[in-house]
């Protein structure tokens, strides 16, 4: 089943009508069987707005707490936070991308904007040039608005903001400005899952599709591999909030061409030697989000550092490991799952970070 062909996403189940309404989240027993700490937050604050200070404002950079690290760096004064970002906006690439899940990439591609730096410090990161290396070009927020419009002009089905967590303070104004100038396609927020609930809430009316990772069920694994102490708790809370925001706006919406116009897709990258944690991740996703569309990926590619260190993360995921995780997703009950066919290592998933489209349209001659 996993052999042959090029790497691509396959829809394992044809059913694609899941609805992220509140009733679905709660279940027949009012949510007691699925409830967790994250879900209580939703119940206490059903509109998701009360008591939330305006986290996403440009002034927040004077003592940055945009991401769950809340490191307090004075980015406004030029200090870099743990994420590596200061007050400047840096983008590494802005171009059509055809390797996201089918409801995101469609036939014409997703208009991806890859932001430089990242709050997580994943030792196996496949985008390390931009996440830790800081590769990218400094642009103005106004240029980000133009980039979104140019990607739409190129035919993008959506604008796919990849790891914008540490630039979230710029997004409300940029998205509103782009909308005012004719941006009509959905905004996809493509994230590691390490997000503050408050930020998700403030973006709830602006982001249409949450394309969110759920990396680890084990806090220890998060600590060891991504250098954060609290990944599972944070990821559950932010995922619950994303589902709540989509439910508040009327639930998932998929158009006649199968493109997601509103909703949540939860991604999980299976890591070599950690299939047990992957199965726990799926259990957690189910408890938090119910029958949400999931994307279980086997594209793990050991980077040079992992190859040098050796051990389990120096190899790809085996077919057997991947099958174990996929089978567990079936057992849990997910009805919409994307999975990948073919070998694990394929460079097509890692686009060239060559600043394409950052300073001007990628097809502007
Ligand atoms: S976004 Fe960066 S600077 Fe801000 S709290 Fe997170 S790590 Fe610190």
Automatic annotation (TrEMBL):
Keywords recorded for this protein, A-Z: Iron, Iron-sulfur, Metal-binding, S-adenosyl-L-methionine
Matches recorded under Pfam families: Radical_SAM
Task: Indicate what this protein is called per its UniProt record.
Answer: Radical SAM domain protein
Q: Name one GO molecular function term.
A: metal ion binding
Q: Where is the Radical SAM core domain?
A: 114-220
Source organism's superkingdom? Bacteria
Q: Which organism is it from?
A: Collinsella stercoris DSM 13279
InterPro entries per UniProt? Aldolase_TIM, MJ0674-like, rSAM, rSAM_sf
């Amino acid at each position: 089943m996993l052999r042959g062909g090029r790497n691509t996403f396959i829809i394992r189940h044809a059913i694609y009508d899941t609805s992220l309404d509140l009733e679905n989240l709660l279940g027949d027993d009012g949510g007691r069987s699925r409830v967790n700490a994250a879900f209580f937050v939703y119940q206490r604050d059903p509109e998701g707005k009360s008591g939330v200070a305006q986290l996403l404002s440009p002034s927040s950079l004077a003592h940055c707490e945009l991401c769950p690290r809340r490191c307090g760096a004075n980015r406004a004064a030029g200090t870099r936070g743990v994420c590596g970002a200061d007050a400047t906006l840096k983008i590494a690439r802005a171009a059509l991308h055809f390797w996201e899940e089918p409801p995101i990439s469609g036939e014409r591609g997703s208009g991806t904007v890859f932001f430089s730096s990242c709050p997580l410090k994943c030792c196996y990161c496949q985008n390390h040039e931009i996440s830790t290396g800081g590769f990218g070009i400094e642009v103005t927020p106004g240029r980000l608005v133009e980039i979104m419009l140019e990607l739409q002009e190129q035919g993008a089905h959506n604008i796919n903001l990849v790891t914008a967590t540490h630039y979230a303070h710029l997004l409300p104004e940029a998205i509103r400005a782009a909308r005012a100038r004719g941006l009509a396609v959905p905004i996809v927020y493509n994230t590691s899952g390490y997000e503050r609930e408050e930020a998700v809430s403030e973006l709830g009316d602006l982001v249409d599709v949450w394309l969110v990772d759920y990396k680890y069920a084990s806090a220890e694994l998060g600590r060891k591999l991504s250098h954060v102490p609290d990944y599972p708790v944070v990821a559950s809370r932010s995922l619950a909030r994303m589902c709540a925001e989509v439910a508040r706006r009327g639930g998932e919406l998929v158009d006649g061409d199968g493109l997601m116009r509103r909703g949540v897709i939860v991604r999980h990258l299976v890591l070599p030697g950690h299939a047990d944690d992957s199965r726990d991740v799926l259990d957690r996703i189910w408890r938090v989000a119910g029958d949400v569309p999931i994307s279980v990926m086997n594209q793990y590619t050991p980077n040079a550092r992992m190859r040098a260190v050796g051990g389990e993360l120096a190899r790809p995921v085996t077919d057997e490991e991947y099958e174990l995780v996929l089978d567990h997703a079936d057992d849990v009950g997910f009805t919409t799952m994307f999975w990948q066919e073919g070998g694990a290592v394929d460079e097509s998933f890692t686009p060239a970070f060559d600043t394409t489209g950052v300073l001007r349209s990628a097809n502007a001659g």
